[in-house]
Write a structure and sequence with these properties.
Order of helices and strands: HHHHHEEE
Distance between the termini: 32 Å
Low-confidence stretches: none
Radius of gyration: 22 Å
Oligomer: single chain
Shape: flat
Number of strands: 3
Mean pLDDT: 76
Length: 161
């Protein structure tokens, strides 16, 4: 209750905890919407604890994907309690920032084909869970940048949630 009272008054000093607060409402609404759709269209439901874990995981992933300054992690006791509920700590962000890969200024901005009859493939993939839904896509281009083929493929079960 104390946490909710502080949030309502906007008394958090930490930039990280203010961001958690700003993200919370959106993730809660989105999770309720997804659960509603699952119940209506798939006749399935999740336990409340699993929904809450998903909300916390989404907030944590968002916080850890962003860039933070050291002062954003200066937390009072109540703020540390909130961050600990999300299983986060400053070292997670600090270590990520230290390992951040910066683009080389010497890397080419445009791919150079080694010959006239070369074909380049660009592709990417994504997965949700293991096992779970996954997809990949690719595009072939010739040395004149003409698209030769574009493909997208989805894999996995739809009922694994």
């Amino acid at each position: 209750m104390n946490t909710l009272m502080q949030w309502g008054k906007g008394k958090f000093q930490s930039g990280v905890v203010r961001r958690v607060w700003n993200l919370s409402a959106g993730f809660v609404i989105w999770s309720i919407w997804k659960e509603r759709n699952k119940r209506i269209f798939r006749d399935k439901s999740c336990q409340t604890t699993r929904i809450w874990e998903e909300i916390c995981r989404s907030i944590k992933e968002t916080i850890l994907s962003e860039t933070w300054e050291e002062e954003d992690w200066k937390l009072n006791q109540e703020e540390w309690r909130i961050i600990s509920k999300l299983n986060m700590e400053y070292s997670m962000v600090y270590l990520r920032a230290e390992k951040r890969i910066r683009p080389s200024t010497q890397s080419p901005k445009h791919f150079k084909y080694s010959g006239e009859h070369m074909i380049k493939l660009n592709f990417d993939g994504v997965s949700k869970g293991n096992p779970g839904q996954a997809g990949l896509g690719g595009i072939f281009r010739d040395s004149k940048e003409n698209t030769k083929w574009v493909g997208v493929c989805g894999m996995g079960r739809r009922d694994d949630q």
